[in-house]
Amino acid sequence: MLVSWDVLAMAIVILAIACVTALAAVVVVKGARHRRERRRAAYDAAVRKQVVKLAIAEDEELDALIGSLVAASGPVGAHVEETLLRMIPEVRGEVREAMVQVLAGRGLLEKSREQITSSSAVKRSKAAELLGILGGADVVDPLTAALKDKSLEVRLVAARALGVAARPEAGGHLVDALALGSGIPHSVAATALLNLPEQDPAVFIEGLRDPDPGIRYGSAAVVGLLLMSEAADALFECLMAEPDREDASDVVIAACARSLGRLGYKPATHVLADLSRSPVVSPSVRQAAGQALKVMPGAEAREVRKRVAQSADADVRRILVDW
């Protein structure tokens, strides 16, 4: 079937119009994007200039500066919050305190305290993260409550946030979060515990005696990492009592052994020697005891290592080879 020249010409015209329209749309979109980027750059320059001043302002000037950042409204106000939240993890000391004061003054603390009980898990997670950044005594209760949230993601964020907030009174709650049933990985809760500026040995001593093996394991590991000598006796007691428990755990025994080695707890030397060459314990326990024995200080420990190396299995001997 032949197509008339008129129809062909009309098709070409329509195609040309479509191309021109599409090109115009691209130009308009790019132009709008460029304008947004320029506005954002302008806001960023203005806000950054004020934020930088937080680091150098004198007391009277600082109060005025904080007040102006708190009072910022509209797109500039939103950009203040965005900029501070982006920068605050990288700063410490008085500058961080000033940034937190601005964010709290803009209502983020109250808003986060409200949203941490939202029906949305996404909002609860975001609120927990913000509460950790804002810190202070007021964030401990909502964050410790969030450690038992029905959403695992919220529980994880809350544990990390307590580490960021670094409030000593959160220690006991984070030890409880080491429980096997919490769903929170030990690495997350333990890292948060290690971030706390002050540690109460009583919290970890209680953890070493807890019925939950997850809490015993986490407490034993953290005590060693903190070199908490005040808990050394309880750590040794945990090592000795663990095999007789109904829920005895090799990972608890191994963690106790390694931490006793880190602490250089000499009364454990012969017990570690027996474990390191015992045929009835698991290889992981023997190796952990060997590692602890290897770093145990003193002449007595040195002689014990020599005897163990003569009768231990190949893996333990390799651990002790450079004593």
Give me a quick take on this structure.
With 323 residues, this protein is mainly alpha-helical. 73% of the residues lie in helices and 0% in strands. The chain is elongated, with a radius of gyration of 30 Å.
Commentary on this structure:
This protein has 323 residues and is mostly helical. The protein has a domain at 63-77 and 96-172: Leucine-rich Repeat Variant (Alpha Horseshoe), CATH 1.25.10.10. 73% of the residues lie in helices and 0% in strands. It has 18 helices and no strands. It has helices at residues 5-53, 59-71, 74-87, 93-105, 108-115, 121-134, 140-146, 152-165, 171-176, 186-195, 201-208, 213-226, 232-241, 250-263, 269-276, 283-295, 299-311, 314-320. The longest helix has 49 residues, at 5-53. It is elongated, with a radius of gyration of 30 Å. The chain starts with a helix and ends with a helix. The relative contact order is 0.05.
